[in-house]
Amino acid sequence: MIILENVSKSFSDLRVLKDISIEIQDHEIYGIIGQSGAGKSTLLRCINGLEDYQFGRITVDGVPVSVKDKKQLHQLQKKMGMIFQNFNLLERLDVYDNVALPMKFWGMKTNTPEAKKKIEGLISLVGLEDKIHVRPRELSGGQKQRVAIARALVLDPQILLCDEATSALDPAITREILDLLQRINRQMGITIIVVTHQMEVVKQICEKVAFIKDGKVLAIGKPEDLFIRPSKEIKAFLHESSELLPDNGVNIQLFFTDESADEPVISQMARKLNLDFSISWAKLEDFRSNIYGSLVITVDEKDKDKVLKYLDEVKVLWEVLS
Ligand SMILES: Nc1ncnc2c1ncn2[C@@H]1O[C@H](COP(=O)(O)OP(=O)(O)OP(=O)(O)O)[C@@H](O)[C@H]1O
Ligand SMILES: [Mg+2]
Questions:
Q1: Which domains does the chain have, with CATH numbers?
Q2: 3-state secondary structure of 288
Q3: Cα–Cα–Cα angle for 21, 26, 32, rounded to 5 degrees
Q4: Hey, CA dihedral for 146, 149, 154, 158, is it positive or negative?
Q5: Distances in Å between the alpha carbon of 16 and those of 35, 106, 242, 307?
Q6: How far is the CA of 45 from the centre of ligand 2 (A)?
Q7: Are 249 and 321 in contact (CB under 8 A)?
Q8: How far is the CA of 58 from the centre of ligand 1 (A)?
Q9: Does the beta carbon of 36 lie inside 6 Å of ligand 1?
Q10: Ligand nearest, relative to CA of residue 20
């Protein structure tokens, strides 16, 4: 549905996006993750035509996104709702009028029975029925983001673009907002693009993710494929380093997927091979409610081959860390 082909963009001399190619399917929740300054917001702004690009092609539903054709661009923008880190609500308007704002902007009536039903329906979808005539200053951050989500949905978009939508919220509220986005994706079939520097966001809801660094896409895949066995660059992004591991012995990292995560592989191996080793590092992670784990064991050099052979036999993925 949304296709970027070799997109490049510069701000005068600064190349911000470099040859970006991404394909986002209908109804997908797609993550774009990377460090501050990587070009994530710029990429999102190019997708909805707020920003122009110099090279390549972006199409939404086969229609090219180009700032040159203003009329066509406005029609495209109507299909895309957007939410931001700082919510961007108008303080002088209450919740109802904030949600209704895009309709006003498009010259639609907001006080007809249908409009009222629509707006109130969205306000209850985001769980703010009791705040309908409250001003933004009386709302918490999470509630403000709920208003922004309702507002982004008021024109029946096919796509929702989220730029660091949960970065200003605490972990519990972040989870609630992500649950809401996931519900919107499932119930309304809306394609969602989330731009974030938070791993948690990608792990909780994204089906696919593009990792970008310095304006370049370095990896695309399922979050669990990118992050359970991270490349050097992704490791650096995650601040995972092997410096803390023991240097007397061989460090072997084991990877457990959903099926193998609850097998007692380690204790069985110790018993069957009759050997001792230490567990030096471990993590368990939840990707869209699937549990994945990783573990580093430190074994004696003389036991290394035996251990690797055993791990192959029980079909556990491993990697010897240098
Ligand atoms: N309007 C602009 N004019 C000039 N340079 C810009 C403009 N907007 C962004 N940049 C530059 O483009 C680069 C990418 O910025 P962008 O905002 O896309 O990064 P980001 O990945 O969204 O970062 P963050 O996580 O901090 O939001 C930065 O070096 C930034 O300074
Ligand atoms: Mg940004």
A1: 2-235 (3.40.50.300), 241-321 (3.30.70.260)
A2: coil
A3: 45
A4: negative
A5: 13, 32, 31, 46
A6: 10
A7: no
A8: 19
A9: yes
A10: 1
Which amino acid residue places its CA nearest to atom 4 of ligand 1?
Answer: 11
pLDDT tens digits in sequence order for the chain, 322 residues long: 899 999 999 999 999 999 999 999 999 999 999 999 999 999 999 999 999 999 999 999 999 999 889 999 999 999 999 999 999 999 999 999 999 999 999 999 998 999 999 999 999 999 999 999 999 999 999 999 999 999 999 999 999 999 999 999 999 999 999 999 999 999 999 999 999 999 999 999 999 999 999 999 999 999 998 988 888 899 888 887 666 788 889 999 998 876 666 678 889 999 999 999 999 998 888 888 888 888 999 999 999 999 999 999 988 889 998 7
Question: Does the beta carbon of 42 sit less than 6 angstroms from any atom of ligand 1?
Answer: yes
Q: Of all protein residues, whose CA lies closest to atom 5 belonging to ligand 1? A: 11
Residue 60 has which token pair? 């939404």
Question: How is residue 193 written in tokens?
Answer: 């693009």
Question: Can you point out the beta strands (E) in the chain?
Answer: 2-11, 14-24, 29-33, 55-60, 63-64, 80-84, 159-163, 191-196, 208-213, 216-221, 250-256, 278-287, 290-299, 317-321
41 CB less than 6 Å from ligand 1? yes
Using the mean position of ligand 2's atoms as its centre, give its distance from the Cα of residue 42 in Å: 7
Q: Please give the distance of CA 26 from its chain centroid, rounded to a whole number.
A: 16
What's the CA gap between 176 and 166, in Å, rounded? 10
CA distance 284 to 292: 6
Map tokens 């192959």 to a residue.
Answer: 312
Whole-model pTM over 0.85? yes
